[in-house]
Amino acid sequence: MGSRCFSRVINACILFSITPPSLLIPIMQYSILRGEDNMESRATNESHMEGLNNWSHRWKFAFLVSSLVNILMTLSFIYILDLGTRCSNSFPEGGQMIYTPSEAAINYKLVKYHLGIGHDTQVYEQPPSPEVDAAWMELTKYSITKVSQSIAQSLPNKTWPVPGSADAPEYITGPDVFHALHCLDLLRMKLYPDHYSSKFPLNQRGHAEHCIGHIRQSLMCFGDMTMNVYQYSKNHGYAVLRTDVAHTCRDFDKLKAWTEENWLDLEDEMLALDIHGDPIQPHK
């Protein structure tokens, strides 16, 4: 339910609750008997007015209780409708439909994107330099993590044990976002083959094709529907696309902190070792 609609309903409830009793029941009018020596009539009238006052106090109390109950019932009904609306899009609690040990690190915040053109360019998009390489290394360094055996058994897929961890079994995992960043870094290097030819096997076409596919699937998986806008540009003389808008994002710093705490400094060659024992079997 939209916030504007919600506010209108709340205002309607408040207006109903404060409507004066005089607008809800007919107004009772009374005329005092005239005469100087009609004491009996005056006494009767005073007794009648006292009874009416007592009735009025009881009615006001009942009206107040009834109004409060009505407001609570209305708010409960609105909450149920709003809950149903929010649940109808199947967005899972924590943003995950399957188990991940990093669930506690998933938090959301607003992030305004950089345009990536001209002066609004971050270090990651700049030409090769030691500073650029260090920035990308910091992003992708913690791509492999380790989890305990009990956590590994809760994963939806099998995974391989950490070499040499038989006494206290640990298992190899890797948050997908960091693999996607690794793939993006590889494609970035492809833009500068002369600079990175001795550092990275850029002739591996299959690796690059895998990375294109992985990044594509990652973008389609999360399907960010934040609306970009078109605004007039004096430099161009027409409206241009503006992608530097605010997005609802997962807090990357918290995700990175989780991977640092669970980082496994593992070389690819270690995965080729002859390890005794089968990969962990997930719980059925």
From TrEMBL:
Which InterPro entries has this protein been placed in? Answer: UstYa-like
Instruction: Give the record's GO biological process terms.
Output: mycotoxin biosynthetic process
Q: Any transmembrane segments, and where?
A: 12-32, 61-81
Keyword NADP, does the record have it?
no
Sorted keywords for this record are: Membrane, Transmembrane, Transmembrane helix
Q: Which Pfam families match?
A: UstYa (PF11807)
Query: Does the entry feature the keyword Membrane, yes or no?
Result: yes
Q: Which residues form a coiled coil?
A: none
Q: In which pathway does it act?
A: Mycotoxin biosynthesis
Protein family = Belongs to the ustYa family.
UniProt name for this protein: Uncharacterized protein
Lineage of the species this protein comes from? Eukaryota, Fungi, Dikarya, Basidiomycota, Agaricomycotina
